[in-house]
Specification:
Blueprint: E1 3-11, H1 15-24, E2 29-36, E3 39-47, E4 62-68, H2 75-80, E5 84-86, E6 90-93, E7 109-112, H3 125-135, E8 143-147, H4 153-160, E9 165-170, H5 173-185, E10 190-194, E11 206-212, H6 215-218, H7 222-227, E12 229-241, H8 245-253, E13 257-265, E14 268-275
Parallel strand pairs: 6-7, 8-9, 8-11, 9-10, 11-12
Antiparallel strand pairs: 1-3, 1-4, 2-3, 5-6, 12-14, 13-14
Helix pairs in contact: 3-4
């Protein structure tokens, strides 16, 4: 299907606000193409007919719009993609499954996550942060829930790290199906379902819950997610811009969860939280 491409120049101070508005409007992706004199150029892509009702801050407007013909956006990436070491323990291979498995250094584990969709392969900074925090936890024999599972990288990593049970869900049916496919490709057992946190049983709990999502996407569900963390368990949160960190931690503190570990990379931050 064709895509709509919209371009705006945004004052740096308003970028987070505009990105949040675009996400709420269902953008398929945002490209930050350049920054000059305190102004950031944002290029947003939408499904055909979408994005016309985005409420932009005063003084910000689309100055260019156009239709992009349908194409395999990941084809060129797949041609050049190479296995990538992530964290202390993993190598993620975004190539096709019929490619020979790469050599993996001693102490590292391989996850094959073909680059076939917009759900990512685990290379984004927020995913790397969440994976590194998972590596710091003792997961052997424990249960792990991945909220917004996407391509399944974090749930699969938890399983590789010894979790006795790895579960995950996503409101996007395509993501849930893809995560299941990736788990099977890696010979891992991950239980995945499509839906939101409302699908969680009232008393269902996990030793570790991991959430890699923008705060505005997950905080409306914070009460239910916090309830899913076992009494002595941990909540790993990532996908948070450092500028939103203080407000995000306050929101989780309202549900009795406080940071015990933190990591940052580029403009992103992540925390492990436990009950205060």
């Amino acid at each position: 299907m064709p895509y709509v491409r919209r371009v705006a120049d945004v004052p740096v101070a308003l970028v987070d606000e505009v990105v949040a508005a675009l996400a709420q409007a269902g953008t398929l992706g945002i490209e930050e193409s350049r920054q000059v004199d305190g102004v950031q150029r944002l290029v947003a892509y939408f499904a055909a007919g979408g994005g016309g009702d985005v409420e932009l801050p005063a003084g910000v407007r689309w100055f260019e719009e156009g239709v992009v013909p349908a194409a395999d956006w990941l084809a060129s990436y797949r041609e050049s993609a190479q296995p990538l070491e992530v964290g202390e323990r993993f190598v993620i291979d975004p190539r096709e499954p019929d490619e020979p498995a790469p050599a993996v250094a001693a102490g590292r584990m391989l996850l094959r996550v073909p680059a076939r969709s917009a759900f990512g392969t685990g290379s984004h900074a927020s995913t790397r942060l969440a994976l590194r925090l998972l590596e710091r936890l003792e997961l052997a024999g424990r249960s792990v829930l991945d909220v917004g599972i996407g391509s399944g990288v974090l749930a699969m990593a938890a399983s590789k790290l010894g979790a006795a049970r790895a579960d995950g869900f996503d409101v996007d049916v395509a993501a849930a199906l893809l995560a299941g496919q990736h788990a099977r490709l890696n010979g891992l057992r991950v239980r995945v379902w499509a839906g939101g946190s409302a699908a969680l049983a009232a008393r269902a709990q996990w030793d570790v819950v991991v959430v890699n999502a923008l705060p505005h996407e997950v905080l409306p569900e914070a009460e239910r997610i916090a309830a899913a963390v076992a009494e002595r368990g941990a909540l790993v949160i990532s996908g948070v811009l450092a500028s939103e960190g203080e407000a995000t931690l306050r929101a989780w503190a309202a549900h009795g969860l406080a940071p015990v570990d933190t990591l940052a990379e580029e403009e992103w931050a992540a925390w492990t939280l436990k009950r205060a």
